[in-house]
Amino acid sequence: MVKQEKTLYRGLRGYIVIILFVAAAIPLGVIG
Q1: HSE value, Cβ hemisphere, 13 Å, CA-based, for 9
Q2: Phi-psi category of 19—alpha, beta or left, where left has phi over 0 and alpha has psi -120 to 50?
Q3: Residue 2 vs residues 5, 7, 9, 10, 14: alpha-carbon distances, Å
Q4: Which position among 1, 13, 27, 28 has the lowest Cβ density within 10 Å, counted as fewest Cβ atoms?
Q5: Distance CA 18, CA 30 (A)
Q6: Cα dihedral sign for 12, 15, 20, 21?
Q7: CA 32 → CA 5, 27, 28, 29, distances in Å?
Q8: What was the pLDDT predicted at 8?
Q9: Nearest 5°: CA angle at 15, between 22 and 3?
């Protein structure tokens, strides 16, 4: 149970990182 929860958190964290990266890349793309 704990292992599954940890994996879910890891996947969710990776998903959040991707969202932040895209959100940061969009303004740079607009400026560039």
Answers
A1: 6
A2: alpha
A3: 5, 9, 10, 12, 18
A4: 1
A5: 18
A6: positive
A7: 40, 8, 6, 5
A8: 85
A9: 165
Q: HEC profile for the chain?
A: CHHHHHHHHHHHHHHHHHHHHHHHHHHHHHHC
In terms of C-beta distances under 8 Å and separation of at least 24 residues, what long-range contacts does 1-6 make, across chains too?
none
Q: What is the pTM of this model?
A: 0.53
Q: What is the pLDDT of residues 1-32, one digit of tens each?
A: 678 888 888 889 999 999 999 999 998 888 76
Amino acid letter for position 7: T
